[in-house]
Amino acid sequence: MLDGQTGGGQANNWKGNFGIKVTEKGDSKAILNFTSGGSNVTVRHVDLVGKGSVSSAGGSYSNDAVAIYGASNVTLSYFHMVGIGRCPFFISPKNLVVEHGWVEKYYGSSAVHSEVASIWGFSGSVGDVTFRHNLFTDIQSTGGLMWDNSSNKAAKLLVYGNVFYKPAGASWGKANGVVGGWTGGGGEQFHNAKVYNNAFINVDQQSLSTLPNIASGNEAYNNIFLNSQAPSFSKFSSHNYNHFINSGSTAGESGGTTGSGDPFVNVSGLDFRLKAGTAGGMNLAAPFNADGLGNARGADGTFDRGPFEYVTGTINVAAPTNLRAQ
Fold this sequence. Notes:
The chain is mostly beta strands. It has strands at 2-3, 20-23, 32-35, 41-49, 66-82, 89-103, 115-119, 129-132, 135-136, 143-147, 157-160, 163-165, 179-180, 190-191, 193-196, 199-201, 215-216, 219-221, 224-226, 238-240, 243-245, 257-259, 264-266, 271-274.
């Protein structure tokens, strides 16, 4: 384990003072690179700073923040990424957990394709991949969390308790969507993506990709869509109990709801706790029954929608976090 001890990963303190800071100085190299010999590794409380411009190297070992070439059982916790020259995550993992982090800014271009996470079996078959309790404030080039498990159709992409937030004035790329995959022209497939209790805020593209031609077993429950393009669930065979605010209708969901206003404590200050409880969502079993602050979901009889469970009592509003210009 590599542990910087301090920094990042809370509902209203996504950055903080990290115990470890790694700054990229050159080109064509990932900041953290895990090969098959780099298995069973945990990295915590780390600030990853890229070169601040798009990579000039393109493929293979490029300017990614985290590259995984076949490694197993890797965990990245309490982290921050900014200025990444290509993908924050370029990964072919056998079981990966990414949690309590903030992906603030990365770069892509027509010559150097990027996405928040490029997940596919370029170094052996993929295993389960989990993104939980993270904040994403940038989508560029190809898209967000792009998943291809044609190498192992039983593998799961677990996406829960995250916030996908486009800040005012930010320019996001519009391609494959925020959570999704590729069309399949290269044999890509999209199976077993489980999208629970996330928030999609100001998303002016598909939150859930419609592109994959071969898809099955995908689910979307208990998410909040605020001021976003109405999501399509065409590749998600099971969806319900989502909450839509200025983001279209309930899409035929028996437990779906619509509303008005901003349900979060302080969006511009990156505090995405709820001002009040939401209408009851679907009760989900562990590990989905706790939020990123460790609050048990449904303890008051209502399993709230969105990334954080509402806790009664006084809410201290966070001061604005230093969100860099996009």
